[in-house]
Amino acid sequence: MWVKLDSTVSCTFTRGEIEVKFGYTSWLPETDLMRQFIEALKEGKLMGTKCEKCGAKYLPPRQHCKCGSHEVECYEASTRGKLFTYTLVTFPPESMAKYAPYIVAVAELEDGTRLLAQITGVSPKTLQVGLPVQVVPHQISKDRIAFKFKPEQPAA
Questions:
Q1: I want to staple 81 with a disulfide (CB 3.0 to 4.6 A). Which of 77, 88, 109, 119 is the partner?
Q2: 155: which DSSP letter?
Q3: pTM for this structure?
Q4: pLDDT (tens digit, 9 = 90+) per residue, 78-104?
């Protein structure tokens, strides 16, 4: 459950035995908001924040907006979208070298927000802009989680 209290975002979450961090390496601050984002991701949900002043949306969530406002609310973002652009990474940063080569893509989600992630289940030859994709959780290790894109499966 996500609630707004006194101009800050407060999100409830349950902690398991292992504290799980987001991403292949830690680049986001470890806050209650990020812990809620991680818990939602474990359940296959994508949580973002929306500025109440200007309407800007953020994925991953932020506690403040680029307009300077701290008046943000949590929302559940769509996990469906279309491929906007992509690139094949053959010379990655050191922390990602063992995964190379891999494809990084930007997808435009159904609500218009754009999200950057690795895309799997495709080859560079089969990729095309406009490809329907889903955002899915990706458990990197016991204590690390991220999200990635997968091609959306056609309805049976």
A1: 109
A2: P
A3: 0.76
A4: 999 999 999 999 999 888 888 899 999
**Which residues make Cβ contacts (< 8 Å) with residue 99, sequence separation at least 6?**
92, 118
On whether both 61 and 14 belong to a single domain, the answer is yes
Please name the residues in contact with 148: beta carbons below 8 A apart, sequence gap of 6 or more. 117, 118, 119, 120, 135, 136, 138
Q: Which two tokens stand for residue 12?
A: 């409830």
Q: Give the side-chain half-sphere CA count within 13 A for 104.
A: 13
More confident residue, 116 or 3: 116
Measured distance CA(124)–CA(26) in Å, rounded: 28
Residue 26 Cα distances to 21, 40, 91, 123, 153, angstroms: 7, 18, 20, 28, 31
Q: Which is more confidently placed, 99 or 108?
A: 108
Q: Are residues 34 and 59 in the same domain?
A: yes
When the pLDDT of each residue in the chain is averaged and rounded to a whole number, the result is 82
Question: Cβ distance 132 to 108 under 8 Å?
Answer: no
